[in-house]
């Protein structure tokens, strides 16, 4: 049962996590608080639109949102929060905790790709505690607390335990409590937290950003790669290709010549020959007129894109792309 229930406090956050589910092929509906979820056994993302209201009103909206939900229908229940800790995180999480009745509460709010990390129990923006950034003076949603354990404890009647970074990376035990917060500065740290919580076998309420949700999904269902066939003669495109080749996830293996952008032809048979030589994961292949990011075992199953009509035609004739 690969079903996710995600509750977010604004429309952007709801759709952000909804897209992560959809790109993994999971049927997903985004609904507003108080609406009944579809009867299609898909994933559900609920938008409470409660980030800008007071804590009491936010708690009431959370109760309204949960009133139409059957928690036992879902494998994962996630409270999606703002990576800058805006909104009523503690009040909403406490209501969800009361209604869902988890055996374990995991709060890990980093979004490493956007510079939001937690170290020493303090949530930071590019290394600076949130209380020392412009977010503390946000006229609509000011950040009053950047210590994540204190933030959550404000609405909980039990002790909140914090796991520092060295224990996240060196091994941690969750048997001594129910509500935990965590340091994390990378996605790998988040995956260690998720794995440790899952290993307990307990019913978990997950509280975090889209990064926590994405890494939970990635452990369950990995995101497939994409085939790109690029044939534009634009120097800007050339620069984009060279920039992509610098990324560790797209290794460049030059085929004995420097990439060129002159008007030459690459036949379907040549393109097939290049594809056939790639047997070990995604890579970027340069030819005089085209560049392919290619992993043969994925071609028939996953997404692809193409630039320049001639190369698109060649790729189709080579049976790389199905129209």
Provide structural commentary.
The protein is an alpha/beta fold and 323 residues long. It has ten helices and 15 strands. It has two domains: 4-220, 3-Layer(aba) Sandwich (Rossmann fold); 227-317, no CATH class. 31% of the residues lie in helices and 20% in strands. The chain has an eight-stranded parallel beta sheet with strand order 2-3-1-4-11-5-10-9, sandwiched between helices. A four-stranded mixed beta sheet has the order 13-14-12-15, with helices on both faces. Strands 6-7-8 form a three-stranded antiparallel beta sheet, with no helix packed on it. The longest helix is centred in the middle third of the chain and has 13 residues, at 187-199. Residues 253-306 and 319-323 have low confidence and may be disordered.
